[in-house]
Amino acid sequence: MTDIPVFSAPILPAPKHRRPMGGAALNVLREAGIGVALVLMIAFFAAMAPDFLSVQNLSNILTQVTINMMLATGMTFAILIGGIDLSVGAVMALCAVVAGTVLTMPSLSNAAAIGLAIAAALGTGVVCGAINGFISAFWGVPSFIVTLGMLNIARGGALEVTNARTIYDFPDAFNAFGTATIAHVPVMFLMALGLLVLGWVVLTRTVFGRMIYAIGNNEEAVRLSGHRPFVIKVAAFTVTGLLVGVAAVTYMARLTIANPILGNGFELNAIAAVIIGGTSLSGGRGSLVGTMLGAIIIGVLANGLILLGVTDFIRQIVTGVVIIAAVVLDAYRMRLMRRAGRA
After folding, report:
1. What percent of the chain has pLDDT over 70?
2. pLDDT per residue over 26-55, tens digit each?
3. What is the H or E stretch that residue 130 is in?
4. Is it the case that residue 113 has pLDDT exceeding 90?
């Protein structure tokens, strides 16, 4: 029996890595740019406002960024798949009034009322998020339109449930959470930070997280590889809704009320934090670390301008300029990435 010769291709030495043009600038923009911007902003306000670095003011900043950090964490999941959720502020109001209604039921003990209220808020957020994801994924409707409709449904639902009235008189044990601190750090901020870390683990250490990035980059490739983008997209919006429910409970504890018009405009701050943090609106690129820094930048900016005596109208203008600058920076970063890929 004649042996069949086996031919193998010669093993060529690996080509030496050539640093792509703009690579250094790209790394700085992608990994350190947002952190450097935050440090410079803190240094500026510390120099201009003597009370900025006081323990009390820093604690206030952490309290102020908590809700936006929670909403932005959920918004990151939606934006990474190439979607967006404009309904988070209105859904937060709906979650709050549903929870507030349960929380003030006289027939329930305090412990039962608190537990059921939290479950009601989380459940309401999950249902709204799942509906957003299902309609957007199943019928291929842009999430911008779907969540805009949900915004009106949730806001109208919140007003209908309460008859446009504020719910209050919550149990003291529930309200205490809104003011609790550990070493001057608000407990609610620590909870937001814990949720963000959990989200980071999901996005970077699980198959589900990798699929979210993959769908944002090329949904068709994910489909052809045997995965179901529909399930991942619905799950991403469901996560967004879940975190909206958590934010609603936290906000209720902080204000000690549930108001049907709360959360108005919160979706814009959440989107701004995500975009400032470096997540691309086209999806597939970004991180929760950047989202956290983006939320802190918005909080630091608002707090610092207040200490400097800047009017509310000027603060809105400055915040808008920062958001536009972040979008321009994102476009410049994409240009550097394309240039680096061609080099």
Report:
1. 90
2. 545 555 678 888 999 999 999 999 899 999
3. helix 110-138
4. yes
Higher pLDDT, 337 or 339: 339
Backbone angles phi, psi at 167, to 5 degrees: -100, 135
CA distances from 108 to 105, 112, 116, 121, 280 (A): 6, 6, 9, 17, 46
Would you say 273 and 287 are in contact if contact means Cβ atoms under 8 Å apart?
Answer: no
CA contacts within 13 A on the Cβ side of 299: 22
Give the integer Cα–Cα distance in Å for 319 and 331.
19
- 10: Cβ–Cβ under 8 A, 6 or more apart, which residues? none
Extract the tokens encoding 310: 């800047």
- Residue 4 confidence (pLDDT) above 70: no
Which amino acid is present at 159? Answer: L
pLDDT tens digits for 281-338? Answer: 889 999 999 999 999 999 999 999 999 999 989 988 988 888 888 778 777 777 777 7
